[in-house]
Design a protein that fits this description.
This protein has helices at residues 2-23, 30-45, 53-71, 75-93, 100-112, 114-124, 133-159, 161-185, 191-208, 215-221, 238-248, 257-288, 297-322, 334-365, 369-393, 398-417, 421-431, 440-444, 451-456, 458-463, 479-499, 507-515, 520-523; strands at residues 126-127, 130-131. The protein has 524 residues and is mostly helical. A two-stranded antiparallel sheet has the order 1-2. The longest helix has 32 residues, at 257-288. Pfam families: DUF4153.
């Protein structure tokens, strides 16, 4: 135990120093990959962590995400990095966990409890005959009271502006007092960097040191993937039956409660099928084969797609609700299953309508992140419906849905992060100026990795849309303003390259620097 604590504390200290050295005033790029290598190396050397196949799988997934940050350096690749890091940490410390969601939650708890975990390991550490446990005992008594005081002080500050100003004034005075003391003894010390080092220390401790108990693992072990028929009693009705009582009164309490629930579900699915059939017929006749844009196309397509996606999600919730328990084992439930499968099939048709709507939107106005997002959500809905079908057909539980969909979403996140979406959007829109209403202002708002493409296509941007807008659009920047924006962003990019070291290196910046002929000394 002592040796383990010594190893983790030494690793945390090294990690804090590394964090401070590679992230201070740097962009997130190659330095993230270096930090990930350090975290994985410490995990491999930590003998208390089992090196199972799951450990290797999520370590590899996280390293892949770190590489994507270096290659694409996009917001999506950064999101994939953080999520994969949390999943790796969660599965490493709690290997009995089976879902990505709970692995991420466990890792977040790890980070939140990092100060406590750090103090606990400092108390267990020993250097020869010397240990810090007696010195740290005092902190154990004040950590929880301090946390409670901070929470309630925040609440009282939000409720009373005068009190908030007084607290802020007191904190500023205390901060200035300690700042003056430190600055008096250490005139050349950078307080901000010291605080940054402490932050890196806590982050590294939260990733490396397991503090919270295995209660999340024990809780998850209670959930099964396969539904079992349970004998209902008055004391085991649960929240679902209480929810049904809101709409059906005391019907579920009677002996024919299961039959009553079956009749309610039958009526619900029959009605919903008829309702959705009418909507699908309207979409098929007016959208699929003979669509004529009218009115505000942007509002009609965008809001329509959002509403349909929301309805598909609600449809899955309804199916999960009715097929949550013993109704799956009801001997006369075949008609209900047929209606449920029919409704799922109709929702698949609805998803096709979403794709067609978004396709028209892209055809008329080009690609944007939101329009790509609609496609992604529609894909997720398709996968969700497929897993809901398996749940009903094979009598699976809600936990099964969470487990499978969590894994699928995690894989899709990594897959989508491999694509440089900003570059794809700019290339597509500039290549289709003859058919879309080009929005130069939107293209100019995208990341710096698109600057070489925009610079190469100045003439197209200045020419504006080659087709008339199909509806009223916002006033666009003048040619002079657009030229100023492009030149200003290029100048800022060159200045940024000059201020950053090799730790901020990424492939996209390198390509852009090479295009704008930023020399090695200037770009470092």
């Amino acid at each position: 135990m002592k040796n383990k604590s010594n190893f983790l504390l030494a690793s945390t200290l090294i990690g804090g120093v590394l964090f401070n050295a590679i992230f201070w005033e740097e962009r997130l790029a190659l330095n993230l990959f270096i930090y990930s290598l350090f975290i994985i190396a410490v995990m491999l050397l930590n003998k208390s962590i089992s090196k199972s196949a799951k450990f290797g799988l999520y370590a590899g997934a996280h390293l892949f995400a770190a590489v994507l940050v270096v290659v694409n350096n996009s917001d999506l690749s950064l999101a994939a990095y953080y999520i994969s890091l949390l999943a790796f940490i969660g599965f490493s410390h709690f290997q009995q966990i089976r879902t990505v969601f709970l692995a991420i939650v466990s890792a977040v708890f790890q980070l939140i409890t990092a100060p406590v975990g750090l103090l606990q390991n400092m108390g267990n550490a020993q250097l020869g005959t010397f240990n810090l446990k007696p010195m740290l005992r005092f902190f154990r008594y004040i950590i929880l009271p301090i946390f409670i005081i901070i929470v309630f002080t925040s609440i009282y500050c939000a409720a009373n502006e005068v009190f908030a100003e007084a607290v802020n004034s007191i904190l500023n005075k205390i901060g200035n007092f300690f700042y003056d003391i430190v600055h008096f003894f250490f005139k050349d010390i950078n307080i901000n960097r010291v605080l940054f080092f402490c932050f890196g220390l806590l982050v590294t401790a939260g990733l490396l040191i397991k503090f919270i108990s295995n209660f999340i693992e024990r809780l998850e072990l209670l959930f099964k993937e396969q539904l079992l028929r349970l004998k209902k009693t008055e004391h085991t009705n649960g929240i679902w039956v209480e929810f049904m009582r809101i709409f059906t009164g005391n019907l579920p309490k009677r002996k024919l409660g299961l039959k009553t629930e079956y009749i309610i579900a039958l009526i619900s699915f029959a009605s919903l099928n008829l309702l959705l059939l009418s909507l699908n017929l309207v979409d098929i006749t007016t959208l699929w084969f003979s669509y004529e844009p009218s009115g505000s196309l942007s509002a009609n397509v965008h809001h329509g797609a959002n509403a349909l996606i929301a309805s598909i999600i609600l449809a899955m919730v309804v199916i999960i609700f009715f097929f949550r328990g013993n109704l799956n084992f009801y001997s006369k439930s075949k008609p209900l299953r047929v209606l449920a499968y029919t409704w799922m099939a109709q929702n698949f048709i609805l998803i096709i309508s979403v794709f067609i709507r978004d396709g028209y939107y892209i055809e008329f106005y080009g690609l944007t992140h939101k329009r790509i997002g609609v496609v992604v959500f529609a894909i997720l809905c398709t996968i969700g419906l497929a897993t809901v079908y398996i749940k009903v057909a094979r009598q699976k539980t809600l936990f099964y849905l969470l487990k499978v969909n969590g894994n699928v979403w995690f894989v899709l996140l990594l897959a989508f992060a491999t694509i440089n979406w900003d570059v794809v959007i700019v290339r597509y829109n500039l290549a289709h100026t003859a058919s879309i209403s080009l929005d130069p202002d939107y293209l100019l708002s995208l990341s710096e990795k698109t600057l070489p493409i925009l610079d190469q296509n100045r003439a197209i941007l200045l020419a504006g849309p080659s087709v008339a807008p199909r509806e009223e659009v916002a006033v666009q920047s003048t040619n002079k303003q657009m030229l100023y924006q492009i030149d200003t962003r290029i100048r800022f990019f060159k200045e940024r390259c000059a201020q950053q070291s090799w730790l901020s290196w990424n492939l996209q910046d390198w390509h852009a620097a090479k295009y704008f002929e930023v020399d090695g000394n200037e770009a470092k």
